[in-house]
Amino acid sequence: MSRHLRRLFVSIRAAVLAGGPFVVLAIALLVLADKLLQPAPPRHTVMVTGPERSALDAFGEQYRAALAKQGIVLELRRTGGTSENLEALRKEDGEVSFGFVQGGAVPDDERGVEGLENLGALFHEPVWAFHKRAPRKDRAVRLLEANRIDSARLRCSTCPRPRR
């Protein structure tokens, strides 16, 4: 019986000596690949939203809550709106990962050139026009053409510019 056990231990020892370095090398390569390639998504990311207490700010808070459930920390940076969001996304430092941009802010011929990708639309934004009295239909179009919309945001990339 001892002879059979001795042969078994010798064969196990030979297998460990022959295959052990390959197992150690495989584990080391897996650890190195995990550190260098970072296959898992980041645990911290930065998003630009919009002005405080705006709809985009509220959507950012919803994203933060949803990602927190997955263990991801979302840092929200409030901005003045679409122009500042595009500026932050275009920076080379890569600090901002994603953000909200109004539809139509980037012309069709510039899409994809800057390395920015559209992930989808949240909602359509209607344009509301208010006037003190009911204008005639032909005059209503002239009023919209002659006036600036959303005059509080002078840097808005989708707002018509004032005429001089």
Summarize the structure.
Helix content is 42%, strand content 7%.
Question: How is the secondary structure organized here?
Answer:
Blueprint: H1 2-37, E1 44-48, H2 55-68, E2 73-77, H3 82-90, E3 98-99, H4 137-146
Parallel strand pairs: 1-2, 1-3
How would you characterize this protein structure?
The chain has helices spanning 2-37, 55-68, 82-90, 137-146, and strands spanning 44-48, 73-77, 98-99. The longest helix has 36 residues, at 2-37. It is rod-shaped. It has 4 helices and 3 strands; from the N terminus they run αβαβαβα. With 164 residues, it is mainly α. 8% of the residues are buried. The N and C termini lie far apart (105 Å). A 3-stranded parallel β-sheet has the order 2-1-3, sandwiched between helices. Strand 1 (44-48), helix 2 and strand 2 (73-77) form a beta-alpha-beta unit.
Percent helix: 40-55%
Tell me, rounded to a whole number, the average pLDDT: 76
Got a strand count? 3
Radius of gyration: 30 Å
The stretches of 5 or more residues where confidence is low (pLDDT under 50) are 150-164
Look at the helices and sheets and give the structural class.
mainly alpha
Principal-axes shape call: rod-shaped
- Beta content comes to 5-15%
